[in-house]
Amino acid sequence: MKITITGIAALVLLLSFTINDTQLIYPGYFPEPQYNFTKNPLDSSTIELGRNLFYSPVLSSNNTISCASCHSPYNAFSHTDHQLSHGIHDQVGTRNAPALFNLAWQKKFMWDGSINHLDMQPLAALSHPKEMGETIQSVVKKLNASAYYRNFFTRHLPTVLLRGKKY
């Protein structure tokens, strides 16, 4: 069975929210989120998939680096022990991983604000040659080749087809 996914980037980042019956719960004193959840609604299965992908090295070209390698849950989902984050082959990147929380309330991402949409932000690290050094097409092939991910999609997201698209 071939699988396809939309919004793979957003799935990887939607980890710091509290989910209750697929609703985002946040304090009453918070403003409305900037992220448009109507285009990528919260769902327990997609949240679980995002969490699995966040901690899986399958997203890197040599299967050694996960998002959590730099966005450490022990350091507020950031990278604190080096000035710049380390990627595949222990290469030093060009930026340090910022903390990942309250992302639905942000309009710009990366230290310089160069990414303007949450769904696209993870693609920067995924495709950077010194960070994860991977392409979305290759990730899709690896996910399709994985019995775990094929079974996950079959059980939890049977209507989703996983294929790579150029962004």
In short:
With 167 residues, the protein is mostly helical. It has helices spanning 8-13, 44-55, 67-70, 121-127, 136-145, 147-156, and strands at residues 18-20, 23-25.
- Summarize the main sheet: 2 strands, antiparallel
CATH class: Mainly Alpha
Number of strands: 2
User: What is the correct CATH architecture?
Assistant: Orthogonal Bundle
Strand line-up of the largest beta sheet: 1-2
Helix and strand sequence: HEEHHHHH
Measured as a percent range, the helix fraction is 25-40%
The CATH H-level homologous superfamily: Cytochrome c-like domain
CATH topology: Cytochrome Bc1 Complex, Chain D, domain 2
Number of helices: 6
Helix-strand makeup class: mainly alpha
Uncertain segments are: 1-20
- What is the residue-averaged pLDDT? 82
Rg on CA atoms, Å: 16 Å
**Tally of discrete structural domains:** 1
| CA(first)-CA(last) distance | 24 Å
Shape: globular
Beta fraction of the residues?
A: under 5%
